[in-house]
Design brief:
about 100 residues; globular; two-stranded antiparallel sheet
């Protein structure tokens, strides 16, 4: 078994994919704590998106895909059914900024 404590400061309904982040983190913790062979990143992203529907968040899978498949300095063009990704180079010196402006 596992004993887990979760704590955070992301405001509820902030739109920052906190539920997806929690599901992805919990899946990795479960895999490692139980010495399970890690499935492919794509399969794990699909599994997390599927499992999140059971807790009522109705996510589409993009958050889980980018959580597992992202690479530094790259953006991803993500397609579904089946899940596939194509890396897109970011222009030199550019970045994405995610902020809660409230």
């Amino acid at each position: 078994g596992m004993e887990i404590m979760v704590d955070g400061s992301i405001p509820p309904s902030a739109g920052l994919s906190s539920s997806s982040a929690l599901v992805c983190c919990a899946s990795l913790a479960t895999v490692y704590a139980n010495n399970i062979t890690l499935p492919s990143k794509s399969n794990l992203a699909d599994l997390c998106a599927y499992s999140e529907r059971f807790i009522g968040t109705q996510g589409g899978g993009m958050d889980q895909a980018i959580s597992f498949l992202a690479e530094p300095g790259k953006a991803l063009k993500i397609d579904f059914n089946p899940l596939s990704c194509v890396e897109v180079n970011l222009p030199e010196g550019h970045s994405f900024v995610i902020a809660n402006s409230q």
